[in-house]
Structures are given as structure tokens and as C-alpha cells.
Amino acid sequence: MKTTLDEMQAFIAIVTTGSISAGAERLGLTVSAASRTLTRLEEKLETTLLRRTTRRLELTEEGKAFLECARGIIARVEETEERMSLRRQGPAGRLRIDASTPFMLHVIVPLINGYRERYPRVELELNSHEGFTDLLEKRTDVAFRIGRLRDSTLHATPIATGRLRVLASPAYIARHGAPASVADLANHTLLGFNQPDTLNEWPLQDADSQPLHITPNLYTSSGETLLHLALHGAGIVCLSDFLSNADRKAGRLRQLLVEETLEVRQPINAVYYRNTALSARIASFVDYMKEQLGDRGFDEPL
Question: Is the pLDDT of residue 270 over 70?
């Protein structure tokens, strides 16, 4: 075989990070060494994998085909190495985890020490993104997604559920009063998401007995930002228990329209690609999360 694993990994890192310099940094190489590796790989394959411009790198058709094959080869080598390691000492190797910032901060981070004590040979890489994340593009092993899943190519393992509640801070209530009815929300400042718009569906019914879809007075892309806006008295918000539970228990947020609120729970799933063997390190983390969270949701503190 003319092509080496190091060359494949360098090519994948350059494509994933979007530049030769960033790919070199990820691999611990100099920029010149990474550039020479890419050139050597193209010479061996006798084709151009990446078109280089002053502003960006663009995959050729040959590059796209080689990238898919290279990722598959690297994944199989890593899986083989892991199986050999498992025979000796249990799960090992790098585990790349992705989740929204709120779920990462409020759920995953508090549980990390316990996982690392149990599986000290697993090297964790935690990444946070708002919105949809392409697992292959970001080289993610397992992602945690909240709400309905749309991607049929993903395998999903249910982890927990989070109940939705309408909330406001005592400071906001003191200044503006609490809404007396669902219709009264029209007289208040409502906090919501700019995308996806489905997140602005609250667990209440409108005048036609349909799920209430609100038009926010203040938008943001992050649930974490919504939480802090609500804590600072900026308006009324609808959040999942995993995000708001601690502040609600401490009295920093109060639930509104309790009698009118429907029992709506957001599913929380661990997802990975169906055509990817569930490695021991992925299984260990997914099983640990299920063990810690169970199916009780977040009605009680973690």
C-alpha cells in the first residue's frame, strides 16, 4: 500500500478543520510538514484532492471519494486497536462528544468526574454547538440531541426526558405581575428561540385548544442565553427541567400558569451513525448517562 495512515489522518484533519494550519495544529505538526504530507499523498494517488485558494480549501470530486474511504479505514483501524485494548484493560481511546451548550453545562459536565473515575483510559473531547451538527463533518462519536429526531441515518438511544415549564424570575413578577391566563401572555415580554421555530411551541393551549405557538419579543439561538435573560428579569420563558431545575428549586425562577401547563416532555437521545459499530467507549458513556439519569427525567436535582 503506497498511502500511509499518517497521510490519511493528515488529510482528514485538514478537511475537518478547514485549513492546513488548523489541521497541523490538531495533529501536532508544523504547517510545512502538514503541507508536504498532503502534497505527497496527492502525488502517490496521482490526483488533486484539494483545490487551494488564498481564502479556502475546496474538495475535488476525487477528494470527496477519498475522504469517505479514508474515514472508513481510520475508523476500522481505531476499532481494531480498541478491541485489542479491551482484551487487556477495558474501554480506551478518544471519545468525541457533542451537545448543545446548555445540556453540556448542566447535565454532562457535572457527571464527567464520575465517568472518568470509572473509565480512566478513555480520553474525552467535549464540543458544544447550537443547532444541527454533522457528526461526520465534526468527527463526533456520539451526540446528545433534544426533541424530535429527523435524521433517519442516525441510531438513537433514549437517555432521559425533560419536562417543559413556563417560568419567570421573582423580579420580573414583582415588576409586571404574573399572567392570570394563557391569553394574558400577550401583555408580557416573551423570550424565545430564533431557530428552529418549533422550539417556540409552549406546553399550553391557545383559544382554539391547539398547542400555543408564541412570537417572542426577544430572540436568541441559545437556551443558556434564555436562562440568563429570565434570571435577570428580562421576560417569561419556556425551558426544559434539565436547564431550569436548579434555579426553580432555589426560587430564582417560578413556574407560571401551573394549572394550564400540559405534561409535555422533550425526549433526550444519544445518537450515532447506524453504519458505525458501537465501540466500547461509546457504549460505556451512553450506558453511564442512562444509569445516572435513568428514565425519571429531571424532576429532582441531579
Answer: yes
Whichever domain contains 220, its CATH number is: 3.40.190.10
* Count of the separate structural domains present in the chain: 3
Instruction: Please check whether residue 37 lies inside any domain of the structure.
Output: yes
pTM of the predicted structure, to 2 decimals: 0.67
Residue that wins the pLDDT comparison between 276 and 93: 93
Distances (CA, A) of 15 to 1, 20, 24, 58, 165: 22, 8, 11, 9, 42
Whether 170 and 259 map to the same domain: the answer is: yes
DSSP bridge partners of 146: 268
> Where in the sequence is the domain holding 252, given as residue range(s)?
162-264
- SS3 call for 211: strand
Residue 156's beta-bridge partner residues? 271
Segment 129-148 mean pLDDT: 70
CA-nearest of 182, 187, 167, 146 to 250 is 167
DSSP strand E in 195-240: where? 201-205, 211-213, 218-220, 237-240
- The residue among 34, 52, 85 that closes a domain is 85
240 and 170 assigned to the same domain: yes
pLDDT in tens, 68-119: 888 888 888 877 776 676 656 678 888 989 898 999 999 999 999 999 999 9
